[in-house]
Amino acid sequence: MTQHTDLPSDLLPATVREFFAAHVVRDADTASSFLAEDAVVVDQGETFRGRQEAHAFLRDAGSEFEYTTEQIGAHRVDDAHWVVTVRLEGTFPGGVAELDYRFALRDDLVTELVIANHPA
């Protein structure tokens, strides 16, 4: 059964919380440590396979812009799937974006992360 509830950050799995905390401060090394070796990361239709490719993406994504990140929502889909919704504001085209970070977990590691526009 799918359960959608808004959760405070402290009720997210530690893997999601700690990955996201590292990602927000652009610490790709720490963020990557929460990825499974065979992790898949998808952003803007581009797919990065494996921890090495995902690390390069995490290191370089958005580096040409200044922006802030604020968590505005989170929910549990099931025991292995979680969604964190964030609002970005910055110097990128459009200046504001709301994104869903959709996590799939296995053995306390991120196996898949899909970053997509939050539905309006």
Query: What is the helix content?
Result: 10-25%
* Low-confidence runs of at least 5 consecutive residues: 1-5
Instruction: Give the biggest beta sheet.
Output: 6 strands, mixed
Mean pLDDT: 91
Per-chain topology:
Elements: H1 14-24, H2 28-32, E1 35-43, E2 46-49, H3 50-60, E3 67-78, E4 81-90, E5 96-106, E6 109-117
Parallel strand pairs: 1-6
Antiparallel strand pairs: 1-2, 3-4, 4-5, 5-6
Description:
It is a single chain. With 120 residues, the protein is an alpha+beta fold. It has one domain (9-117): Nuclear Transport Factor 2, Chain: A (Roll). Helices cover 22% and strands 46% of the residues. The protein contains three helices and six strands, in the order H-H-E-E-H-E-E-E-E. A six-stranded mixed sheet has the order 2-1-6-5-4-3, covered by helices on one side. The radius of gyration is 14 Å and the shape is globular. Mean pLDDT is 91; it is low at 1-5.
Can you give me a brief rundown of this structure?
The chain is of the alpha+beta class and 120 residues long.
Tags for this entry?
6-stranded mixed sheet; Nuclear Transport Factor 2, Chain: A; 6 strands; alpha+beta; 120 residues; 22% helix; disordered N terminus
